[in-house]
Specification:
The complex is a heterodimer of chains A (about 110) and B (about 110).
Chain A: E1 5-7, E2 10-13, E3 19-24, E4 31-37, E5 44-50, E6 53-56, E7 65-68, E8 75-79, E9 88-95, E10 103-104, E11 108-112
Parallel strand pairs in A: 2-11
Antiparallel strand pairs in A: 1-3, 3-8, 4-5, 4-9, 5-6, 7-8, 9-10, 9-11
Chain B: E1 4-6, E2 11-14, E3 19-25, E4 33-38, E5 45-49, E6 55-57, E7 60-65, E8 70-75, E9 84-92, E10 95-98, E11 102-107
Parallel strand pairs in B: 2-11
Antiparallel strand pairs in B: 1-3, 3-8, 4-5, 4-9, 6-7, 7-8, 9-10, 9-11
The chains are: A mainly beta (about 110), B mainly beta (about 110).
Chain lengths: ~110, ~110
């Protein structure tokens, strides 16, 4: 069974540029999460989807971050414009209905110069 | 107070040692608890869920103390391959919150 797929794996951009990350969850998983992880810290939730509905986006900096999961399957996270402090690993995870167990993708390592 | 707090670490132990990590959580209504393992520059992977009655998986034992609001992870007979960061995860409402992680290094 294929795991969570993320792309790109690495991204280097200059500050003020836009960037987008893509995630395809495990087939059949209704729940999708986007996390941000800084070095030496645990993942911090940005947004959680149940199918196409964002059920928890309280930690998403909405002035520059946006996310969508239009058909309830794959998802895109966007930052516009990126700031130096956005350099981090962006992790996507998915989970099945009725469970809190999460399966993570390999992440996208973003460097903002 | 942070929602989920872990022992700061790092823990450096010899092979064969027993090591224990604690994690405290602030929300008394939390119902779901997990330990994840994260290798350097890799994604977190589920190690084990933590049940009210405690649970064991081989060399790993997880326990929950609701009264004191903490969970623990015990690793017996440590192996070199156990070297990783161990993340405590607790639900806060509908979403999960991760601790900062405790780094373990097992040395020959």
């Amino acid at each position: 069974e294929a795991g969570v797929v993320q792309s790109p794996r690495y991204k280097i951009i200059e500050k003020k540029q836009p960037v987008a990350f893509w995630c395809n969850p495990i087939s059949g998983h209704n729940t999708l999460y986007w996390y941000l992880q800084n070095l030496g810290q645990g993942p911090e939730l940005l947004i959680r989807y149940e199918n196409e509905e964002a059920v928890d986006d309280s930690q998403l900096p909405k002035d520059r971050f946006s996310a969508e999961r239009l058909k309830g399957v794959d998802s895109t996270l966007k930052i516009q414009p990126a700031e130096l402090g956005d350099s981090a690993v962006y992790l996507c995870a998915s989970g099945g209905a009725g469970t809190d167990t999460q399966y993570f993708g390999p992440g996208t390592r973003l460097t903002v110069l | 107070r942070k929602e989920v707090e872990q022992d700061p670490g790092p823990f450096n132990v010899p092979e064969g040692a027993t090591v224990a990590f604690n994690c405290t959580y602030s929300n008394s209504a939390s119902q779901s608890f997990f330990w994840y393992r994260q290798d350097c520059r890799k994604e977190p992977k589920l190690l084990m869920s933590v049940y009210s009655s405690g649970n064991e998986d081989g060399r790993f034992t997880a326990q929950l103390n609701r009264a004191s609001q903490y969970i623990s992870l015990l690793i017996r007979d440590s192996k070199l391959s156990d070297s990783a960061t161990y993340l405590c995860v607790v639900n806060v409402g509908p979403s999960m919150r991760f601790g900062a992680g405790t780094r373990l290094t097992v040395k020959p």
